[in-house]
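Pilot study result, target chain (377 residues):
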Amino acid sequence: MPIIPISTSAFADTKPHYKILDGLRGVAAITVVCFHVFEAFATSHIDQGINHGYLAVDFFFILSGFVVGYAYDDRWETMKVRDFLKRRIIRLHPMVIMGAIIGGIMFYFQVCDVWDVSKVSVVSLVFATFMNALLIPAIPGQEVRGLGEMFPLNGPSWSLFFEYIGTILYALFIHKLSTKALVGLVIIAGIGLGTFAITGPYGDICAGFSLTEIEFTAGSLRLLFSFSAGLLLSRIFKPANVKGAFWVCSVCIVALLAVPRIGGAEQLWMNGIYDTICCVLIFPVLVYLGASDKSSNPLTAKVCHFLGDISYPLYMVHYPFIYLYYAWVKNHKYTFQESLPGAVALVIGSILLAYLCLKLYDIPVRKYLTRRFIIQK
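Predicted structure:
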């Protein structure tokens, strides 16, 4: 369950944004939806389809750090912390609320043997929806679905929880760090992330969705390294003359996320090395190439614009339907081939719903909140 994909235009009022990065964010978001579809057929991290789809979280974190640094690092002399936080909340939170509401509405339609939602009272469901909408995590053993998720109505909200932590840390002190100090933070966090990936209990970094010690540690390391690495990249970035990076980088992202599990259950450390290489080396290079792209192809521009627009809403609305799809598959004991029409409908339907939410809800609400709380009259 990945982090929120945010358009670069969400941060800057006047600066031009990186259209290619918007497009890559959308490609990764659609890949994540497909990754989640295969959860219905996986028995562990080992046999999950599109096996490394969880690494999109770390790619999104790097993107987020890069565009935040690009938009705000040079504005702190005139910008207050509260103004920055208001902008971030206005950008992020409307879709957090929408995802919680959709999750609450869909909850009783998701009954299956894995979780018996029929036993959850309406009062408990309303309370869970309220908590999710406020991004207050549930405690393991006291959440309505029984899987230990921070946000059992819309699982991917866990990454928003860490995104908010990163936002607060950046506003309070990370933006004050010199570039040299930021390099030190990135190195330390990278060592911590690599250590967890290679020597940790999973042999991967597919963790962070629960408030248990291991999960919270993993989520914190993923946020701290990738977000800080993105900030560092924005500070030292000197664009190259690159053309056609969107299509090349898109293929790379899909291929990296789809790589089968490495090392199996016997050699977990091998897969941990792969995760570390992707996060520490490959993803920063992809962001660099995407930010350097100077192509002006109108088709590429339109594709990137559309993908960037839907990326965040898609992330926030698709997962309640993953729960529904999961229950449908389990209740009928379908194979993937038998459920393929439903899987295709889920992906396409989620994209359409994301677009409708963007146009009819997210954009109008953000415009209103910006006028109300940001623009000085």
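One observation from the pilot: The chain has twelve helices and no strands. A full batch analysis is planned for the follow-on phase.
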